[in-house]
Amino acid sequence: MRLKIVAGNWKMNTTVEQGVALSQSLLEQISQVPEDVILAIAPPFTHLYSVYQQIVNSRIALGAQNCAAYDKGAYTGEVSAAMLASVPCKYVIIGHSERREYYREDAPILNKKLALALQAGLIPIFCVGERLEEREAGRHFEVIASQLKEAITVLTPSDFSKVVIAYEPVWAIGTGKTATSEQAQEAHAFIRKILAESFGVLAAQTSILYGGSCKSSNAAELFAQKDIDGGLIGGASLQADEFIAIAKAF
């Protein structure tokens, strides 16, 4: 059975005080979420330890939004995978479209981040997905395959088995647009096919999350698809009631 995961990416939102309050609201409602659904949150770096203290020993897992491509040293402003593991975080998001676009993170950088995250014992949530112009040009499968082959299929089977994939159509992030359940399923099935070419039956055990404007109104339809195992949630994860409603959609 693949793990069902609903992960909230808070991005650059909330103060520490607001983040702790949001965590408390989630704690108060977590009993509504099915026992077999993992609820994870990825606050900003500044919040991690305060939020960890809030959710420790609960069903809520802690993640980070990014990690450095270096293990330590003179890299002012960077946060290493080992530092995140020491908080302790369980998950780390790698390859988010915003990191790829705004910070020019390419395959060599992402490969380093994946290796260091796995070495530190973190579970990477590795993001892939196409831009609007790539989908309109019919290149979305080509783009997704390239992103996977450059970073994921080079892993050993042992390391690959620890990775979660998130499909995020870039044209549906923060735009209010959402891929139809059929479009999302088609992309997820394609991702699983590409993974199976390198890792065989392990691909059938890999959780693949949908990450494009998923909300409570469409989560049930998306999560009902054969190859969609949860969501990587952006703006909707900043509202406790909405985030819990999405997790309940299973």
Short note summarizing the structure:
The protein has 250 residues and is of the alpha/beta class. Helix content is 42%, strand content 15%.
For the structure shown, list the relevant keywords.
alpha/beta; 8-stranded parallel beta sheet
Protein described:
The protein is globular. It starts with a strand and ends with a helix. 44% of the residues are buried. The mean pLDDT is 96. It has an 8-stranded parallel β-sheet with strand order 7-6-5-4-3-2-1-8. It has helices spanning 16-29, 48-55, 81-86, 97-102, 107-119, 132-136, 140-151, 157-160, 181-199, 216-223, 240-248, and strands at residues 4-9, 37-42, 60-64, 91-94, 123-128, 164-167, 208-210, 230-233. It has 250 residues and is of the alpha/beta class. Helix 1 runs parallel beside helix 11 (240-248) and helix 10 runs parallel beside helix 11.
The percentage of residues in β strands lies in 15-25%
Largest sheet: 8 strands, parallel
Output mean pLDDT: 96
Could you give the count of β-strands?
8
- Structural Rg: 17 Å
- Silhouette: globular
How are the secondary structure elements laid out?
Layout: E1 4-9, H1 16-29, E2 37-42, H2 48-55, E3 60-64, H3 81-86, E4 91-94, H4 97-102, H5 107-119, E5 123-128, H6 132-136, H7 140-151, H8 157-160, E6 164-167, H9 181-199, E7 208-210, H10 216-223, E8 230-233, H11 240-248
Parallel strand pairs: 1-2, 1-8, 2-3, 3-4, 4-5, 5-6, 6-7
Helix pairs in contact: 1-2, 1-11, 7-9, 10-11
